[in-house]
Amino acid sequence: MTSEAPELTGIPDRLDTVAAATARLLHTAEHLQDADLVDPSLLPGWTRGHVLAHLSRNADSLVNLLLWARTGIETPQYASAFLREADIEAGAPRPLREQLEDLAAASERWLSLARVMPADRWPTPVRNRAGGEVPATRVPWMRLLEVEIHHVDLNSGYTPADWPSAFVDRLLPVTVADRAAAGGPGFTVRATDTGYTGVVGEPETEITGSAAALAAWLIGRSPGTDLTGDLPPLTAWK
């Protein structure tokens, strides 16, 4: 039995998790007004409309990766970085009704294709937009990241404290590992609610707080005012 076996057996549950996260996102978006979409999101330079348009196009981009895995025919996540940005800019000014219909339809296209993916195709390697090779089993996590993090970016009442504990339990160590790989200042993080401890580089200080607060700070979604310790400056990740 290969190391992918546990990943394969957990896929239906992971798809259910993405579906639940998407339902929460749509619920938040449905309570917006057209005028709200031109207001700033938590991402510099992006309105709420940009965030919603990106979430729709991201779902379609991950359809491309699933098609690649299923057919064996290389299908890039995005045709180009230029077209990715152009699609987001073109979609951002649309009225709320169009945004909601697009997001719901794109999310369902991705989820429907994922639910019928043959089991033997999930381990197929594909490449993300940065060029990194990952097995298709990673794609549900890629979508969950987009939905949960950009839900916060909508700046509409959903915060890192609302993230499900299972999501935070995976996000925090993944983010610590990513920060360690990227280099920069060294520090230790300790989650006061879960007991998790992680190390980035050569630690010079310890930063403590809830697991969700630590994860939000590490990915640039929080200034860390709810944390304790000497916080080094971090670059935001989009």
Largest sheet: 3 strands, mixed
Q: What is Rg?
A: 18 Å
Strand order of the largest sheet: 4-3-5
Spell out the CATH superfamily of the largest domain: dinb family like domain
Helix content: 40-55%
Unreliable segments of 5+ consecutive residues: 1-6
CATH fold annotation of the largest domain: Four Helix Bundle (Hemerythrin (Met), subunit A)
Count of separate DSSP helical elements: 8
Explained architecture:
- 51% of the residues lie in helices and 8% in strands.
- The model is unreliable at 1-6 (pLDDT under 50).
- It is mostly helical and 238 residues long.
- It folds into 2 domains: 5-158, Four Helix Bundle (Hemerythrin (Met), subunit A); 165-218, no CATH class.
- The chain is globular and about 45 Å long.
- The strands form 2 sheets. The protein has a 3-stranded mixed beta sheet with strand order 4-3-5. A two-stranded antiparallel sheet has the order 1-2.
List the helices and strands and how they pair.
Layout: H1 5-9, H2 11-30, H3 48-71, H4 81-91, H5 96-115, E1 125-127, E2 133-135, H6 139-153, H7 165-182, E3 187-191, E4 197-200, E5 206-209, H8 211-218
Parallel strand pairs: 3-5
Antiparallel strand pairs: 1-2, 3-4
Describe this protein with a few key phrases.
two-stranded antiparallel ribbon, three-stranded mixed β-sheet, disordered N terminus, Four Helix Bundle (Hemerythrin (Met), subunit A), mainly alpha, 238 residues, globular
